[in-house]
Amino acid sequence: MSDLFSDRLLDAIVQKGSPICVGIDPIFDLLPDAVAGDSRTRNANDAEASIDAIFAFTTKVLEIVAPHVPIVKFQSAYFEKYLWEGVEAYYSLVQEASEMGLLVIGDVKRGDIGSTSGAYAGAHLAPPMFDEMEEVVTPDAITINPFCGLDSIEPFVKTAKDYSKGLFVLVRTSNPGSVQLQDAKLEDGRTFSEMLADNLNAIATDAALVGDSGYSSLGAVVGATQTHTMESLRKRLPKSIFLLPGYGTQGATGEMTKAAFTDGKGAIVSASRSILYAHRDEKYAGKSWEDAVGGAVRAMQDDLSTITR
Amino acid sequence: MSDLFSDRLLDAIVQKGSPICVGIDPIFDLLPDAVAGDSRTRNANDAEASIDAIFAFTTKVLEIVAPHVPIVKFQSAYFEKYLWEGVEAYYSLVQEASEMGLLVIGDVKRGDIGSTSGAYAGAHLAPPMFDEMEEVVTPDAITINPFCGLDSIEPFVKTAKDYSKGLFVLVRTSNPGSVQLQDAKLEDGRTFSEMLADNLNAIATDAALVGDSGYSSLGAVVGATQTHTMESLRKRLPKSIFLLPGYGTQGATGEMTKAAFTDGKGAIVSASRSILYAHRDEKYAGKSWEDAVGGAVRAMQDDLSTITR
Q: For this structure, is B165 an active site residue?
């Protein structure tokens, strides 16, 4: 297999035996007492202590899930919340995950026009060009927002090509309100998301992005909750790997992701809170939080096994 | 006038006598030699020296423009490029601008679903809640990306209400490729942007956002280059202040912004490179870079004076 992101991801899915992406959404208030202290008395206004707790928690989660999942997704917002201190922790944890052999998605949803997109691509996807930051590891792929137009995506595509990285473009999000804008019916009968998918496919099928696996390093975010449109989007983007958020806490099940897979391939299912905060689920009452995380990953593997086999 | 962002902005426009927003897009390669050293030999791979030069340059630009313009807009991408070090510089410069009496927009174009948008609002718009970061100043307003849906905007709106801050929602961007997605024709005859504007207006006209001036703290980004649709969007969002990027280097003129104003009010025109890097324009040959910046601001004031008078 080539070194392209798509091939590396498909290879890792086979090696780990599951198409699971664990979403790292560290929320201080939800952390286990064993990590962040008694939830009734912990002080969320202490940034340093909060970041330390998030760091310890995330490192342990990564250790637990690394043998079982190919990829993790860091939600940038929960790090940016701690301003530059949080951003530094984000890059450190991306590196930790990478050193554990996990592929990493930076869920940054950036998007802007022209050269500004280029600056975002430099920050979040390219290896840092600065002498002092040579050691810093950036994610293998990032999520991007296509609102500004397809030309706004080009600088990200160039960076992805230059460094064998990947992109997941928002096509259909998992939130209830996505219907109002993304399912808007165009005069030609397509929905807005379908039109977007058709336009993206012209970029995704660029030979420089398509690996030996037949899949492209330009993937799409399609909410696992959006079953009504998944089949249509799958047909319009046949070479794109789908990143399917919304599993678990947001209500999606393995069965609901079926249409995103072709012969058991071509998609990753992302779950965040149902894994990270499994200790809050009564199903895992009496277990340590670490055992709850492990249990939740195994339960998700079982749920998806009928889809990918 | 009330303390709402919209009232503060309209008041500042009157006080400064111009509806100009200076876009702070600091690009190391374009900085004047007097600030960053000989452009043929300067080292862009030295992050620390680059940030120092950007800091010195931006501070000086702010000093020059502060007497003449009500508001500046910091482009986050050009700071994120320097990872957490750049993010720290961003917040410091936001504070500098604020202390000079300028209103500040953080051009971050964030957008995500539900509680993740809440985390972004906490990072970029709310005053920091952390004991160690009490002094940190966040922008008076930020730009946000509505792609995920109107529900994804709600956490930003709540934060704007809680702290008398403002929002500029992307409605029609200034890049050539915006036409493909944003002008997509819906089956009811509206373009996608027009439909988005109609939906946003329901939020913008919320009494808690509308100031004594009659304008809302929920504004819209409409490219100054998009003359063909500006009149229609103005009608659909009568209470929203328009942020009009694209003036100068991207080709828009004062005349092209006319339809965004109502009786000379209700819009700010944003220029970045044509002001920041005016020293590269042969019109200002022989002048210091500081005089070039000042000259470019005054030329823009003149150009806009027929619109706002």
A: no
Contact B109, B143 (CB under 8 A): yes
Q: Which of B28, B54, B81, B152 to mutate to test the interface with A (most CBs of A within 10 A)?
A: B81
Top pLDDT among B78 and B249 is at B78
From CA A29, how far away is CA A45, in angstroms rounded? 11
- Percent of chain A surpassing pLDDT 90: 95
Which of B82, B110, B130 has the highest number of chain A CBs within 10 A, making it the mutation to test binding with A? B130
Angle (CA) A26-A60-B117 rounded to 5° is 10
Chain B residues close to A117, C-beta within 8 Å: 77
Given a cut of 90, whether residue B202 has pLDDT beyond it is yes
Chain B hits for A83, CB-CB cut-off 8 Å, are 87-88, 91, 123, 128, 133, 136
- Look at residue B188 and give its three-state secondary structure: coil
ipTM of the complex, rounded to two decimals: 0.97
User: What whole-number distance in Å separates Cα of residue B239 and Cα of residue B223?
Assistant: 18
Distance CA B182, CA B150 (A): 16
CB B125 within 8 A of CB B142: yes
Longest dimension (CA), chain B: 57
CA atoms within 13 A on the CB side of A117: 25
Q: CA nearest B125: which of B170, B71, B163?
A: B163
* Cβ atoms A304, A254 nearer than 8 A: yes
Among residues B16, B73, B109, B165, the one annotated as catalytic is B109
> What's A5-308's CATH class?
alpha beta
Q: Are strands A141-144 and A103-110 parallel, antiparallel or unpaired?
A: parallel
CA geometry: angle A17, A20, A23, nearest 5 deg: 150
Helix (H, G, I), strand (E, B) or coil at B146: coil
A66, A72 in Cβ contact below 8 A? no
Q: pLDDT digit string (tens) for A240-250?
A: 999 999 998 88
Cα–Cα distance measured from residue A204 to residue A156, given in angstroms and rounded to the nearest whole number:
12
Residue B60 neighbours by CB under 8 Å, 6+ apart: B35, B290
Domain extents in chain A: 5-308
Give A92's contacts in chain B (Cβ within 8 Å). Answer: none
The DSSP 8-state label assigned to residue B242 in this structure reads: E
